[in-house]
Amino acid sequence: xxxxxxxxxxxxxxxxxxxxxxxxxxxxxxxxxxxxxxxxxxxxxxxxxxxxxxxxxxxxxxxxxxxxxxxxxxxxxxxxxxxxxxxxxxxxxxxxxxxxxxxxxxxxxxxxxxxxxxxxxxxxxxxxxxxxxxxxxxxxxxxxxxxxxxxxxxxxxxxxxxxxxxxxxxxxxxxxxxxxxxxxxxxxxxxxxxxxxxxxxxxxxxxxxxxxxxxxxxxxxxxxxxxxxxxxxxxxxxxxxxxxxxxxxxxxxxxxxxxxxxxxxxxxxxxxxxxxxxxxxxxxxxxxxxxxxxxxxxxxxxxxxxxxxxxxxxxxxxxxxxxxxxxxxxxxxxxxxxxxxxxxxxxxxxxxxxxxxxxxxxxxxxxxxxxxxxxxxxxxxxxxxxxxxxxxxxxxxxxxxxxxxxxxxxxxxxxxxxxxxxxxxxxxxxxxxxxxxxxxxxxxxxxxxxxxxxxxxxxxxxxxxxxxxxxxxxxxxxxxxxxxxxxxxxxxxxxxxxxxxxxxxxxxxxxxxxxxxxxxxxxxxxxxxxxxxxxxxxxxxxxxxxxxxxxxxxxxxxxxxxxxxxxxxxxxxxxxxxxxxxxxxxxxxxxxxxxxxxxxxxxxxxxxxxxxxxxxxxxxxxxxxxxxxxxxxxxxxxxxxxxxxxxxxxxxxxxxxxxxxxxxxxxxxxxxxxxxxxxxxxxxxxxxxxxxxxxxxxxxxxxxxxxxxx
Length: 710
Ligand code: MN
Prior knowledge:
hydrolase, Bifunctional (P)ppGpp synthetase/guanosine-3',5'-bis(Diphosphate) 3'-pyrophosphohydrolase, elongated, hydrolase activity, about 15% strand, binds manganese (II) ion, about 40% helix
């Protein structure tokens, strides 16, 4: 491998867009030998990178720190043979390019002086002040002579405690580790492997949680090269073989640019190659990679609102893969990250993943807490435009209320206090960091729920409704019906569906799908009070499904009072046929089916004549009192921007809820939308259809034979 390439001289040339440098440099460091041997006017490069982000920064203190670091490290050399000062300089340059503020850079220049030279903390405090002293102390290792084998774990404990008071400690540690990983090639293989494993188990999860994407991705690639050299070589070869794959993505980028330009949206559309580990993951997931899989498109816009405008245009002019859509702007991830994610298919079928964010969100996505500025100066944090910096956002579950002291860090610092011995601390730390992070999901009302990764719709239902979730019969996830067992992902929108009749209750198998104590305790308690329900199959279907069944693990939407009554068969379970979704006052015919239930079809449904032809005897059915119903409508329209938004608005205004929707790709300017809708009252159907027909561009709305695909 060639992970030892970067030196400060190579990594500090002036570039137009400092924010993308690090990724490119990381890639360059992996792909080939960089220029070596020149000890440059390095503090000049640091100053230049710093000025690019902070034009008014006072550089005098940086010069003083450099003079002290250079003179005290003089005569020391890295294992590579380079003067030692190249290391603190490289670390400081990494931080400067990410936009770190002056105090961090000062401490970064001095970060190894107390550990490795005659400089003392007292001297650092006297010459550079309390904050710089605190940061240098925070990253200074505990002595092997004092701690023996416990030195490394206890150093991490000390660093994390210091990070709890000043998150800039960890910024410096991460940049320090990145430069050491880049230059690890000179170490013995066993040592490389040991350091790579600690990087994988501790530093990379910390980089992820602190939102420092640029450092995290490069660290991942460096670790990958050391711990999985064969897979790494294979991935590297794959990327090299597909060097022109970027053309496929560039073609989509060109179309995207044109679409946004026509819509009058100011945007930069960039190609963003995936890092090695990302390519490797995609290959494992999809097998063969197509051209557009080697990168993603990054759309950078000015304002938050432009993100949604750009998204709307892309979803109108391309075919979106709705399942890939994630809104991390309305509910940012716990680690400060904000973006819209989507995937679109262009006319030739190429699918491109697209990230949409503002320039400011981009900076935060790359640099995370490093971009916080001085987190203890309120106006700096606000000036950085960080989510949650100015005011804690509602429903953030505490994770982002204070970006300098995230919830996971507080919890970590709590439990470490009760882990006095080193082994317990070290094992628990790696387990804690390895644990899948928390996810944030949207509620239908726009609020958010914080859940453990792996949580299901059952967990979400109890988190939102407490014991009222006992009557849950299904859920909508991202607008589509989903089984209660469905595991939720970060950014999903989940809407638990509760039955109207309070009699229904949880099924024992829900316990297999819970990750939260709250859900588990509530379900266990209910089952204990209802022993008859604890038996498998005890919850016989007493509610008929209204319309197409929710693919919900056998539990069906209760809509019994919308349902026809069968005469001759009192009390029979009645089910509305999914093929024709009858709605009052349709003429209906019923057929008894196995198990004593009756299925109800519209009179004109082809299913009726087919059943008659097979000799099945119909039974007379009639509508009970009109109530909730489900219906599938097809809207034919001429394609235009905002059509989907206007139609869904008309539907919502008419009081109907969208259960599922299918949008077919436009053909000759015409588009067909199929909606399965839930109405409070069947009597609302004619006005709903009229309202949909009134939407500009719509020329027909009709009842469908088939429900919209889920
Ligand atoms: Mn160091």
